């Protein structure tokens, strides 16, 4: 017999979510995740992936992955410290350090895992973390796991950050203090004010931690937000993912050699979870090679995102203040946003609605993620559908 308490808990809460319209039905995609996806029997223009450069289906990377399976098998066989560190892992880490302009780097199984790993390897209950209120869920969870005092900072509010940094330092309550931020904020597409953050960190001698999941491959000629601002020497922790622009799966921390040495002996997802597969590692290394050799894909990504943004603006949509390819189309009311996304889908555009509690109440939006793999024709079709549905629902 299964637990009646568990059943009661699950049934009540699932019903509650469903009655509020907050239960997320997940759409299975048939075939690859590209600029066109096949969902529920239909081909849709995909504006919902994080596959910024289209590398998830790149023929060169597929070949490299297949070769790695032939030479190294499908699994790494163990956690890194036992005997799961393959030559391929070391090659990837060397490449990552070069790419990021740091002394060293360490790879993890995901970007989420990086935040589970790195924060708690360094911070503890005697420390404090100044955390932007819009930071990614994995940053929030990583901070909680560390047991450090979490001090929430108003989004990108440098006055607030300076004030709270000053208070934390002057309180004398904490051993170490860290400022932690997304490089690019994923719901609005705005970029962290890293030059000012670094200035405040230097003023009060604080650590800096930038999770650049949405910036790597996109900003700074591909190397990310920190490089974009020329701050490679001034940010202690650079976190990145191999799952978005790089197109594969995995994550990494780049920084000084002593930081990486420490993470290799003290970060728990590295010590207690099996390492990335040979195919993932080889494909990621090849993807970074591509990014370092040419900026063609980034240029295409930016060109496509400018095109989509101009088109949506011209139609009369509110696209917010994004500074990156992330293109929100802000509708406001939650129910209307969901209905809008549903109608777009019926007409051939796959763009998900994002509503409270992921974004503040009354700022529901459909978020568009153009990629380098979209053609002008696909974007024109998407814009025509936006126009049709927008007019039909009296939104423009
Ligand atoms: C997407 C994202 C992650 C998670 O990365 P995965 O590699 O998908 O686990 C972590 N941090 C931020 C800021 C993200 O946007």
UniProtKB/TrEMBL annotation:
Keywords: Acyltransferase, Pyridoxal phosphate, Transferase. One of its GO terms (molecular function) is pyridoxal phosphate binding. Its EC number is 2.3.1.29. Its cofactor is pyridoxal 5'-phosphate. The keyword Transferase applies. SUPFAM superfamilies: PLP-dependent transferases. Residues 42-383 form the Aminotransferase class I/classII large domain. The keyword Acyltransferase applies. Homodimer. This is Glycine C-acetyltransferase. It comes from Radiobacillus deserti. The lineage of its organism: Bacteria, Bacillati, Bacillota, Bacilli, Bacillales.
């Amino acid at each position: 017999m299964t637990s009646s308490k568990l059943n009661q808990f699950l049934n009540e809460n699932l019903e509650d979510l469903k009655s509020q319209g907050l239960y997320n039905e997940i759409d299975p995609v048939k075939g690859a995740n590209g600029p066109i996806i096949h969902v529920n029997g239909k081909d849709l223009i995909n504006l919902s992936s994080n596959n910024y450069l289209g590398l998830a289906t790149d023929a060169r990377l597929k070949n490299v992955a297949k070769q790695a399976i032939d030479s190294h098998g499908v699994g790494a066989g163990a956690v890194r410290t036992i005997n799961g560190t393959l030559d391929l892992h070391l090659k990837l880490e060397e490449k990552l350090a070069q790419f990021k302009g740091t002394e060293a780097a360490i790879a993890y199984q995901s970007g989420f895992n990086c935040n589970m790993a790195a924060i708690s390897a360094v911070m503890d209950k005697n420390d404090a973390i100044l955390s932007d209120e819009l930071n990614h869920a994995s940053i929030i969870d990583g901070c909680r796991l560390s047991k450090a005092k979490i001090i929430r900072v108003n989004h990108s509010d440098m006055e607030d950050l300076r004030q709270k940094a000053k208070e934390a330092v002057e309180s004398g309550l904490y051993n170490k203090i860290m400022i932690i931020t997304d490089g690019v904020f994923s719901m609005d597409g705005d970029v962290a004010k890293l030059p000012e953050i670094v200035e405040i960190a230097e003023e009060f001698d604080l650590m800096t931690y930038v999770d650049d999941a949405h910036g790597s491959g996109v900003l700074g000629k591909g190397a990310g937000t920190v490089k974009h601002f020329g701050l490679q020497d001034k940010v202690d922790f650079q976190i990145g993912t191999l799952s978005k622009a790089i197109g594969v799966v995995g994550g990494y921390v780049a920084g000084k050699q002593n930081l990486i040495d420490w993470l290799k002996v003290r970060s728990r997802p590295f010590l207690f979870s099996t390492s990335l597969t040979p195919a993932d590692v080889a494909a990621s290394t090849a993807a970074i090679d591509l990014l370092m050799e040419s900026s063609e894909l980034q240029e295409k990504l930016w060109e496509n995102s400018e095109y989509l943004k101009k088109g949506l603006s011209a139609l009369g949509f509110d696209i917010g203040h994004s500074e990156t390819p992330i293109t929100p189309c802000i509708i406001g009311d939650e129910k209307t946003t969901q209905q809008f996304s549903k109608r777009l889908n019926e007409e051939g555009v796959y763009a998900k609605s994002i509503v409270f509690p992921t974004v503040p109440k009354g700022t529901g939006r459909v978020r568009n993620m153009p990629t380098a793999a979209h053609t002008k024709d696909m974007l024109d079709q998407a814009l025509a559908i936006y126009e049709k549905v927008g007019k039909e629902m009296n939104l423009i």
